[in-house]
């Protein structure tokens, strides 16, 4: 745990302290930020308070009195519930405004990990509890230079596999070999392994109406055959197998034929231009040293789609934070599922992936945007036209 960094962040946020709490390892963020080992079972509640200045304070159960011994600070122990409640007050003595893993109205569920009862207990001590969402960004979402390079390396490999996947579909069609969504999924998974890439699951391979389900994923016994005249969506994400590697996450569209139907072409152009408006907005704001909030990026993409008359068919956020997990703990590009007011901070990355999902077909276009110190950039290839998967 980098105590000095935490206290610097608290001073910057003008908060009196950060209270970490856990029971049965419900809060993985606390364990990562504090550097607590995997050996800790936490069958009893523990509290760790980092004040803006001075020594941290611990409160642990007498049965598990050594739980936080690896962390700096003074220690109290409790055994009975009245003893615990009294000592939580002692732990927070002198503080007025503190942060916890809490999000008002559960607007950011990735952060909202403290249960309602514990919040009630803490608030009874007289403190105001604020969300730790912005603090979490500082310690969970920022990439090192090594992680950024791992992302760029993953991008090159994933973009290669993406090209191969569409070529695989074309080859099967040319050879008049049956090819299903699941076959393409297996092809991508095999190539990922051969390239030294890792993904927990996926990819999404969806044709026509299946592409209108943003989280559709084919399985062996539920996969549509891909034929001439079909639209094909491939959403793939992966990272290197090296420690602390971070993900690269993209979605591209292909059409099985030499001439894309006008309706599909029109919807693709609307989605592509919405994606570009959002990424350009971030790049320009960062270059001008102006703050960028997650909800504003969502509005840049969503506003374009709404102006074109497809607003009701874009029913998910524009993008999500990316880290060692494909859905990270930084700001999301969201003013739909939540009003994410968190600022995009340097050395973080996120997806921009607007979509339009009609009854007959769905289209999504996805890139990753990295924000560095004074600059922002799209990190991989950008799709400007639908890939024509020609079978003849």
Annotation, overall tally of beta strands: 17
CATH superfamily of the largest domain: Creatinase/methionine aminopeptidase superfamily
Q: Total number of helical segments?
A: 9
Q: Beta-sheet strand percentage?
A: 15-25%
Please give a structural write-up.
- With 392 residues, the protein is an alpha+beta fold.
- The protein folds into two domains: 3-140, Creatinase/prolidase N-terminal domain (Creatine Amidinohydrolase, Chain A, domain 1); 142-388, Creatinase/methionine aminopeptidase superfamily (Creatine Amidinohydrolase, Alpha-Beta Complex).
- The chain contains nine helices and 17 strands.
- It has helices spanning 3-13, 28-34, 81-91, 116-123, 133-141, 145-174, 181-194, 262-287, 294-307, and strands spanning 17-22, 46-51, 57-61, 74-78, 97-100, 128-131, 197-198, 204-207, 231-240, 248-255, 321-322, 348-352, 355-357, 362-364, 367-371, 376-378, 387-388.
- The strands form four sheets. A six-stranded mixed sheet has the order 4-3-2-1-5-6. Strands 7, 8, 9, 10 and 17 form a five-stranded mixed sheet that branches.
- Strand 9 (231-240) and strand 10 (248-255) form a beta hairpin.
- Helix 6 packs across helix 7 (181-194) and helix 8 (262-287) runs antiparallel to helix 9 (294-307).
- The longest helix is centred in the middle third of the chain and has 30 residues, at 145-174.
